[in-house]
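Hi R.,

Here's the input for the guanosine-5',3'-tetraphosphate complex you asked about:
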Amino acid sequence: MTEEIAQRRTFGIISHPDAGKTTLTEKLLLFGGAIQVAGAVKAKKASRGATSDFMEIERQRGISVATSVMGFVYNGTKINLLDTPGHKDFCEDTYRTLTAVDSALMVIDSSKGVESQTYKLLEVCRMRQTPIMTFINKMDRDGKPAIELLDEIEDRLSMKVCPLSWPIGNGKSFKGVYSFVEKRLILFKPHSKQTAPDSVVIESLDDTRLDQIVGKMDADQLREEVALVTGVYPSFDHELYMAGIITPVFFGSALNNFGVREILDFFIEHAPGPRSREATTRVVQPDETGFSGFVFKIHANIDPKHRDRIAFLRIVSGVFERSKRFLHVPSGKYIKCNNPTAFMAQDKSIIDVAYPGDIIGLHDTGTFKIGDTLTEGEAFGFKGIPSFSPEMFKYCVNLNPLKTKQLHKGLDQLCEEGVAQVFTMIDGRKIVGTVGALQFEVIQYRLDHEYGAQCRFDQLNFIKACWLESDNTLKLNEFVRLRQGQIARDKDERYVYLAETKWSLEREIKENTELVFHTTSEY
Ligand code: G4P
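And here is the predicted structure with guanosine-5',3'-tetraphosphate in place:
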């Protein structure tokens, strides 16, 4: 088992839409031999998110099951890449997936720098001190100067950066990178879609071959910049990387397959394998013999006639065995999983055993909820799989009073799947909150097709839901009483404050020092 654990790397990509996540994913899968032709992942993306047609929603659900976990092997290491949907299908799953990874790869568009979604996803990584590697993409396009990009990461993301390669020019004049790790000049050939870039070992930048290869002007600029960079930025420190304090940075172009091998090589050597995880009673180590894992995502199946689902389980410790009975901690019942599936690239297959770091799909007829823990017998629950504050809110108006029960049941079950969160206002009205706009269409469609309940969504101008906590019950009750129009309860009856603007939230936080405003449900 120790060997199996050491061979695994489970990670996710954090990026803003269009930074190049899909292109890079595809190149990683190509390197791992998991797909044969470029375009396979891309084609799936093209058919996703482009339209919100209802049939499309159904199809997307099938596709996103297939791309939820992409496993591939690179140089003997089994890599599990967990999909973090961006674009229109951005949803709470995107956040929650990051609670199931051991490290993340941040992709930044060199012309755009740090963008909003990257920032939000990084905040989630920070909750568990997730180690992060950075790939600055699209160096073949005119972009911001490298130093400016590094400054932006440091300032906006409050992380220390440590460049491990340095670009020579950018845009049309991009000639390649100098790798500090490999002491190698890696040359870029535009449009060649090269799989192995030409490279020359150059131990010292004083080597005159550098001038011959890239020209005197660029060679001198590289020397100057590298001297500056090595003086300003720290060298790579594995411990600080593991603590999520420092991020190693690489430059490249996913589209041209440039710089991809370098990150993969560095990744398998330095990125953490399955890590220990905090549970309610103790910390669980991956190499413990007792099996344990948690559900971080639930996916409704494609066939709406059968309300069966797939629960995605991340294995934390021990060995998962097919058909063995495991304790479903929340219900206290032992359950048997006969057809667990593993995911390799876009294929699903039934597996007999799985190890820490692996993600398996369990067929579910309503047993599992997000965050549920499964163990060999010990009763503990894993921490750190919270609900995140939604950013879009709508009133759910029941259009058919005869179907009220079905509507509530449907909303509850969609809540369990993590499609949306439902809050109940003091006057009993239901508010649906999501982090992505497409989710409202999905909910409306599914309520109608799976539960026979029709609803309409009315716009609400809230931007965040904060779970309220206070040692002073009087103060809390007073706050709730005075702001009835902005108070609701979550599924566990806890109070949330619905903020209308960032500014009003900041003011409330400032003025109510005895109250804590949490942006996730776990505190
Ligand atoms: P995403 O998943 O993060 O949303 O990004 P995606 O990979 O789809 O890339 C977004 C666009 O950026 C795509 O162009 C893609 O080809 C392009 N791109 C990705 N990496 C690079 C790179 O290294 N250099 C350059 N120049 N472009 C890159 P598109 O026009 O939207 O799509 P397509 O028509 O090329 O498929």
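One thing worth noting: The chain is about 30% helix and 30% strand.

Cheers,
M.
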